[in-house]
Amino acid sequence: MTLISIVTIISFLLEGVFSNMVNITNSFFVPLFSIIILIVIYPYFNHEESSFLKTCFFLGLAYDFIYTDTLIVNACIFLIIGYFIIWLNSWLSNHSISVLFMSFITIIVYRILMYTILVIVGFIPINLNALFTSIYSSIILNLIYADLLYLICDYFSKKYNIKKID
Predict the structure, then answer these.
(1) What's the CA gap between 100 and 147, in Å, rounded?
(2) What is the pLDDT of residues 7-60, one digit of tens each?
(3) Max Cα separation, the chain?
(4) Which residue segments constitute the domains of the chain, with CATH numbers given?
(5) Burial call 95-120: b when 16+ CB within 10 Å, e when fewer
(6) pLDDT at residue number 120
């Protein structure tokens, strides 16, 4: 549980730092580290789905308060993403390539969910070009981050004999 806490806090803070360093409106490097961390930490919950889903909700809630000022929206989306990650993990084994695949799919799902909500509430007009831009601008950096984070967590889990789902 310590590995989960440390990695989650570092990723959450790193997303804020990186967002301030990069112009996210004109960049191919838009961070979604808080979504990526959910994919990487899920195997360390060892089939404790309720604990994982609580973590998803509270991480989304913190994301709402600190990064977006949208009360409960990201908390609910992160919870949906958590269910999606559980479902993906039931079909895929846990290794570097599957983490990259899950990250790719989860980024797309997150962007579509967020775009749909923003269109429904009238915050943005329907513009599929904006949706595709938000997706492809998130892919490169977050796949690199997912792979590095997976390798680091895997190293420490083997070194300190931390159990996880494989």
Answers:
(1) 6
(2) 999 999 999 998 888 776 666 788 999 999 999 999 999 989 999 999 999 999
(3) 50
(4) 2-159 (1.10.1760)
(5) eeebbbebbbebbbbbbebbbebbee
(6) 94
Residue 93, sorted as left (phi over 0), alpha (psi -120 to 50) or beta, turns out to be beta
Contacts of 66 (CB under 8 A, 6+ apart): 16
**pLDDT, the chain, mean:** 93
Nearest C-alpha neighbor of 145 from the set 70, 40, 54, 69:
40
Record the pTM. 0.93
What is the rounded CA–CA span in Å between residue 98 and residue 104?
A: 10
